[in-house]
Design brief:
single chain; mainly alpha; N-utilizing Substance Protein B Homolog, Chain A; 8 helices
Length: about 180
């Protein structure tokens, strides 16, 4: 069973790329991501994996909270002003940071930076994505630091906070928006 779990983890970068394609397509078309992933509008090479589908569903279900987190964290950048692909990468990463319990926050950030390197809307997209997500990780560590050893529940409805203290990324690129 451990080898199956390892395989699933190795497939997650491809699942994130697929989820990004769905979120981007939905944003461009003005449709819901679940409609894209379930319908014939998805133009990906393969059918979305379970992990990609879960990410898309959670991004859609928690979009208001994710967007509030991004808006309060991305100094001098409104969501509407961000390149569409960067906004989709950030939404997916914040969703993973807050609502996926088995992915370390540092992994979510690193994977988002890699997606920004490959698909980002601007030359400085990787630095921008790293800076915004680094701020969010630090904001998550504040409540965790004040809680006396108690971890927030993780999963579909509750944000992850307790892991952030150990997994916050370096400050590289933080002020480069």
């Amino acid at each position: 069973m451990a080898s199956r779990d390892r395989l699933a983890v190795q497939e997650r970068p491809a699942a994130r790329r697929c989820a990004l394609q769905v979120l981007y397509t939905a944003e461009i078309r003005g449709e819901s991501p679940s409609k894209i992933i379930e319908g014939e509008a998805f133009l990906g090479e393969d059918e979305p994996s379970d992990y990609a589908s879960m990410l898309v569903q959670r991004c859609e279900a928690h979009r208001v909270g994710i967007d509030q987190q991004l808006a309060s964290t991305s100094e001098n950048w409104s969501l509407a002003r961000m390149p569409v692909v960067d906004r989709c990468i950030l939404r997916m990463a914040v969703c993973e940071m807050l609502y996926v319990d088995d992915v370390p926050i540092s992994v979510s950030i690193n994977e988002a930076v890699e997606l920004a390197k490959a698909f980002g809307g601007e030359d400085d997209s990787p630095r921008f994505v790293n800076g915004v997500l680094g701020r969010i990780a630090r904001s998550l560590e504040q409540p965790a630091a004040s809680a006396e050893g108690g971890a927030a529940p993780q999963g579909d409805s509750q944000p992850v906070a307790a892991q952030a203290a150990e997994q916050a990324p370096s400050e590289k690129g933080e002020g480069d928006e």
